Amino acid sequence: MKTGPTPKYRYTLRMKVRDYECDLQGIVNNANYLHYTEHTRHEFLLAERVSFAQLHEQGIDAVVARITISFKQPLHSGDEFLSCLNVEKKGVKYIFYQDIYRLPDYELCNRAEVTTVCVVNGKLSAGIDILDKIANQDEP
Predict the structure, then answer these.
(1) Which one, of 68, 64, 69, lies nearest residue 94 by Cα?
(2) pTM for this structure?
(3) Percent of the chain with pLDDT over 70
(4) Cα 41 from Cα 46, distance rounded (Å)
(5) What is the SS3 assignment for 39?
(6) Distances in Å between the alpha carbon of 105 and those of 3, 99, 117?
């Protein structure tokens, strides 16, 4: 049995698959992985004291520009899993590298690369200071 994810991550979130997230095959429907990764990004930013609602009130919206997902192993109803995240800034983009591991065996189930950009008052921005600071922090 593996002891945990080998790479180090900036943030991890433990979750559990709910029955209604599964399809007729008894595995998590592919679209639900988008929910898992989005929820993890939001919780990560809240842990960093960044609120999407407050940013929006200031005319700042972080939006997804692209998502690439590789499905490795399926999750099933009741499975617990660890959603892991790293982030970096490249040009105007914030790239989130997100992996999902099934528990307790730490089998890699899903790997995603999520590219986001910031729109400030309706226009593409080079970024915002608070997100730049988070993206440029060293690993834990």
Answers:
(1) 64
(2) 0.91
(3) 93
(4) 9
(5) helix
(6) 7, 14, 35
